[in-house]
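Example record for the data management plan.
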Amino acid sequence: TVRVWDISGLRKKSVAPSGEEMLRLPQMNLQMQVNAELFGSGDGVVKYVLEGHDRGVNWASFHPTLPLIVSGADDRQVKLWRYNESKAWEVDTLRGHTNNVSCVMFHARQDLIISNSEDKSIRAWDMSKRTGVQTFRREHDRFWILAAHPEINLLAAGHDSGMIVFKLERERPAYASYGTTLYYVKDRYLRTFDYEAGRDNPLISIRRPANAGMNQAPRSLSYNPAENAVLLTSDVDGGSYELYTIPKDARGDSAPEAKRGLGASAVFIARNRFAVLDKASTTIQVRNLQNEITKKCAPPCATTDAVFYAGTGLLLCRSEDKMTLFDVQQRITLAELSTPFIKYVVWNSDMSSVALLSKHAIVIADKKLGSAQTVHETIR
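Corresponding structural encoding:
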């Protein structure tokens, strides 16, 4: 069982009574004596008993704002309960863990329940749909405890050999900078920020696919100033892109229809052409603004898993241990550079130098990947 205790007696015990309460003290003392006989102390009174778990309960947590309780037990189940002034009742059961549930809590800012277990997994559950939306596993360590940072989007979990600190979702938005304007995606809107005026404005509404799950917001954005168009790529359907043409008078209330397709990466390579990496068929497709294929070619390396803009008709192709400068028109490799796994590519204003950003290093090179210098971050 889970027992919810009324501990208001503790507060009353530590605060001096008012004049009216002084008159009621004999009656209050009698009630406290009765409670003490039943529960061993007059400071706490059982308000609800939540029955439903088949085995020992390991953890229970209150929701920060709603009248909800979540509990986890050795029956491998996570249970959601609701309560009011007079009673408490079971709302639903979340099943998925394959061993004892060690700890469970509500996410402070999202409608999520987070649980961990001796089955070596951490699970995130959608509170409204009551379904699992994300699972993280360790190979050898059982999880025992969870904690949430009070101010920022960080969680911590303790396991057999230590602890991990993690986020459920990436917070860096998809963005691109052009001139004095930053284009980025936030809360289902494509927005702009004007550096000079300091103004932030919504441009168009972005329709999120119905099958988009957690961590499937747009990951990258490519902007085409000639046609005022944007390409968004995300992890939906294993990798997909959306092509939007921005209306001239866009103010956030328009929702233009996107042209969609599958692909791990998509970037503009010319005024009216963009390149898509199709990992399923290991090809680079060149498409026009009507989303029609105009050319296909094999990537320079069979393990290429992402492409980045490198100038008109050129791509930087990422594979596990190198970056390759590839001419899409002539289908030839122009240069290669051994690198750690690169996450982001940033060009200077005249495209004469490029910074390749990995997790713990920055590689700076010229436009032909020559004269490379690496700056390593010191890892404690």
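Summary line stored alongside the record: The chain has a mean pLDDT of 87.
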